[in-house]
Amino acid sequence: MPVPHGTPAETISPAEIIRAQAAVLGLELTDAQLPGVLDNAALLARYAALVNAVPLPDTCEPAFEYTP
Description:
By secondary structure, the protein is mostly helical. It has helices spanning 14-25, 34-52.
């Protein structure tokens, strides 16, 4: 179901957002795939919150090379 223009983001369900993103990317998303995609999106959001919670001062030097 299309979401009317100007709808507050808080009122749009995660499933509607995922379906809209898939459509923009030209991806076919079936009803059977949606629960897994929603679970993975929630997992990635938690990881992003962890990364964003790390305070980084503006004086940090960039890492030009990654060494694990």
